[in-house]
What does this fold into?
Amino acid sequence: MFRKIALLVLMLMVLCAVSYADEPEAVNPVQKEVVTESEAPAVAESQDSEPQAQVTDNESESESEQDELAAREAALAEREEELEVLGDSIAAREIELVKKERDFASRSASLTTKMREISGTSAVLLGRETQINKREMDLMAREAELARREMAFAQESQKFAESATLIAGREADLAKREAALAERESELNAKTTAKEAADKLTERESELVKREAALTEREATGARLQELEANLNQRDSALKTREEAITTRENSVSEQEKKLSGQTAAIKDSESEIAKKESELSAKESELASKNKQLDEKTAALAGRESDLSRREADTARKTIEVNELEALIKELPAFDPNNSTEAAMILTYNIPAEKRRELIAMQRAAYQKYSSNRITQAFEDYVKAAEADPANYLAAYWAGLAAERLRNHRDEALNWVNKALEINPNYKPAQELKQRLEAPARPARRRSK
It folds into this structure.
């Protein structure tokens, strides 16, 4: 609105200036009348002398002034029309400026949205990096815990080995004790056989004493019998003491056997407990192995995710660079129609990756340099390579046909390349015109007059 008002004010000022400039003598008639009235007495005599000539001169002057006014009015009308045309052109330019401002606003909005998306992706990537770092810390803690468990398992295994050595030593001691008990049992058996032999000898001695007592004197026999009885009593007491000692030894041996049986039972229990512990440790080892495997898989998955994230970051950075470069190229290039343009910038309209577009543009420019320097064969070969580099490159196919047209005996080949360009884009007008030109009948050569 402000611009329109300013433009209207400028138009009015221009109209006023033009009107004042075009009518410099608008005030002069009044001045002339004043001059004529002041000079009327002086000229009265001349008017009286020649009245008829003065009337004709005034009529001619009035007609000339009217003609000048009409011409000035016509010029003013023409200038008004020109100003109206200028106003229309200014309004059209304002509309174009508004459109361009809208386009610029839409582009700036799209760029802001892209920047927001990039910032959002960067924030997401930072969050993922923090998550990955946290997972790495968890993995390090788990690895430390696994190392601690392995140390505990090594200590337990060392204790188990020590207990096994102790059990082996105890078993050796028990074997020694069993051997000692066997020796003692053999000694007791030998002592019992000696007692029986001694009893037999005493019985024989008593019989002999009885026989000698019968043969000898009764007194001597009586004294000997008393002595023998005393000796026998002593021997009986000695035997009793021996028997008591043997019974005490047997009791101690039985107690030792009981202790040994209890120790063997305890050893068996400890062995069963050790076997249980070994089974538990093997189960723990399997669990730890499975956990280690899971941790390895998780670390591999995390490494893959990290590589994917880095690749995505590289792709986003590359895409932003490509978008910026394309926007810079589009800003630098003038507007063109992809169905009517033969410039290399038309390749930017292809729906292909940016790197491929750059490659095709470079190939197109190199071929055009050769074409413009009349190296038509080399240019044709380069255009053919560019057309074969991408199936959507109808511009290179058109230029290949154009280059083949300038070569001798390549009309059919030129028509083939033009048809390829039209197969890709049937609405491409330069290819249509070239096809019409190639399919037109050749004009017969003019005969030279002798």
Observations:
- DSSP finds ten helices and no strands in the chain.
